[in-house]
Every structure is written in C-alpha cells, then in structure tokens.
Amino acid sequence: MKRNFTLSAATCLFVGLLVRPACAALTSGAYQTLPGATVVESGDRVPNDSRVVPISAMFTLDLAATPPSLSAVISNAVLEGGEPFPLTVRSSQGFRLADGSYRFYGDYLLDLYPAGTQYGFDWRFSTSTNDEVVWNGIIGWGGGHAWYVMITDLTIVPRPRLEIARAGSKVMVSWSAEHTGYVLEQAVGLPATGWSPVANPVEVIGDRFSVTVEAASLQGYFRLRKN
C-alpha cells in the first residue's frame, strides 16, 4: 500500500518567506547543478549524525503542464548515510507560487519502489535578482526516525543541448555558444564505463560551438562535461 510522505516543520521551510524583489520569470527547460555543488545530510543513521555530500543533478522542468512537472536524474543520490547511487526523481504535485517560483512534491524513491515509500521531497525553484535559477528544499523520511537532506541556495544552470548534422563525409556536433566551459566527450555505449574527450578542435560558427569528426569514425554517444 502506498504511503503518503508526511510534511514536517522542517519540510515547510518556505512558508512565510518575505516576497523577493521582482526578477526574471522561471522558464521550462533542462537544467543542471554546477560542479562542486554540495548538500547536508543529517539523521540517526548518518555517520557523525551529519555530513556534507556532493550532488550532481540534471532537471527537466515543464512549467506549462497542468500541473507543472519536474523530473531529475541525480547521479550521486544518498539515503540514510549510505553510498551514493544513481536515482531518477519525478514530481507527483507541482504548482506556481505567488512570487513566481515553483514548488514540487513527490516520493523520492518511487522509481525504485513503485508501490510507494515514506521518503519524500519538497523542492522549490526560483530566480534570484541576478536571474540565476536557485534550488532550495528538503528530502526526508516521514516515518519514525530522523533523516533528511537540506538543499540550500544551489544555483542550477541551463543544460546545453547537442545537435548533430551530417556534412558530406563528416559529422558536425554543435551546441550554443552561450554555454561556455564545456568539453565534448564520447563513449562507445551506454551505460558508459568511461568517457573520452574528443580531440578534434572546437570552432565557433555563428552563434554555436562546433566540432567536426569523420563519419566513419563515429561509434557510440556524445555528451558535454562542464570544466
């Protein structure tokens, strides 16, 4: 039987916040955390009761949906002080707040346990006065012992999208030039045991970064990695 996650006082950390100055509206799209992002995990089963752990997440926000929806792929999720593991998280509820930010709820482990768990999340995404997108919220256990992860003012940035086009005997892999500081990498298959940098030079063509490779040498998959 599916259990509902019970919101604690810590979960409702957004209630009563002062209205922020006006800033750019949050938009649908793909986002990711910055390198070096960390969160604080606390609980009865966490070593020393609390620890700082890295977090790397990719988000897809659909704010035009009814209700608004979120999906996230966390490459190093944590649970009860254990080792990091890959996890996909999806919202079950979402809505727009009066200040233009968006709030999402859901079962943290639903993709692993479709019958439902008492591990839930409560996340808010908003824009700051310098138009950055900021992630705040909590992941927690709604049962009889203490465990939660606090997410505090983490900046997330739009995720660049790769485009691939054939040019004669070659293939051009490109992405928007507004996304600087990325390295193009290649793997022979998924899931990848390792990604290798593409050695071909990066050119600027119009408003895009572009890497050209021989079509005959293509095998596998491409990704961008933030330096």
Key phrases:
single chain, 227 residues, mainly beta, Lipocalin, Immunoglobulin-like, 2 domains, eleven-stranded antiparallel β-sheet, four-stranded antiparallel β-sheet, 18 strands, 0% helix, globular, disordered N terminus
- Helical coverage, percent range: under 10%
Biggest sheet descriptor: 11 strands, antiparallel
**Distance between the terminal alpha carbons, to the nearest Å?**
45 Å
Instruction: Report the sheet-strand fraction.
Output: over 45%
What's the average pLDDT? 85
Helical stretch tally: 0
Counted beta strands: 18
Q: Which H/E pattern describes the elements?
A: EEEEEEEEEEEEEEEEEE
Gross morphology? globular
CATH topology of the largest domain: Lipocalin
Based on helices, strands and strand pairing, what is the structural class?
A: mainly beta
Residue runs with pLDDT of under 50 for 5 or more positions: 1-22
**How many discrete structural domains?**
2
Can you name the CATH architecture of the largest domain?
A: Beta Barrel
Rg from C-alpha positions?
20 Å
CATH class membership of the largest domain: Mainly Beta
